[in-house]
Amino acid sequence: MKVRVKFQKEGPVKFVGHLDTLRYFQKSMRRAKIDVAYSEGYSPHMIMSFASPLGVGLTTEGDYFDMELKTSSSSKEMIRRLNNTMAEGIRVLSIRQIPEEKSSNGMALVCACDYLISFREGMGFRDGWKDHVCRFLLQEHIFFEKTTKKGTREIDIRPLIYQMEVRGKTIFLQLSAGSVNNLKPEIVLDAFSAYLGETFSPYAFLIHRLEIYTDLGKDGEHQFVPLECLGTEIE
């Protein structure tokens, strides 16, 4: 049986890296007595895969990993047992069974993510920045220099920004994600800062991921659906 687990990660645990988060959940599965399936071979390991590993220092209320179970209790019971083992700041929000016809791993399904950007005290944009968000998006192209092992190349990130809007004192972003066109919110913030003619410390912004989506649209039309919606609760 394949299940998809949705969890949040906030507070000091945001500084725990991806590999340590993976090990943490493996230990939590054992403590909660979740009957996880193991791989075969000389070095068996729990069959788990994360949809889109989060960068160190970012918080989330919508991250996912998939895992294989040999047997299961109800979703509510597994959530209760897991959360009883969790450290402060990490909490399992849902566990849903994934049907065979939708059993592609979460990482292969990811196409977009929502983020909420806030500012550290005294480190925000200058007054009037909210009026420039719409103008920034009205640009036909937004170029950014991307550095890779092969060198530096200029890419147009405008098609990868699906939404950008002001929400009170924060910025909401919906960006392309996944293995092909993955746009980090830090890049958008850098591009917007350059548009305003300002330079910011990377520590000026607090980035919070809200949700991860797959795309059920056809013929070029997007229909973004949260990854958990592809599964059903186990009774």
From TrEMBL:
<dbReference type="InterPro" id="IPR018768">
    <property type="entry name" value="DUF2344"/>
</dbReference>
<protein>
    <submittedName>
        <fullName>DUF2344 domain-containing protein</fullName>
    </submittedName>
</protein>
<dbReference type="Pfam" id="PF10105">
    <property type="entry name" value="DUF2344"/>
</dbReference>
<feature type="domain" description="DUF2344">
    <location>
        <begin position="2"/>
        <end position="185"/>
    </location>
</feature>
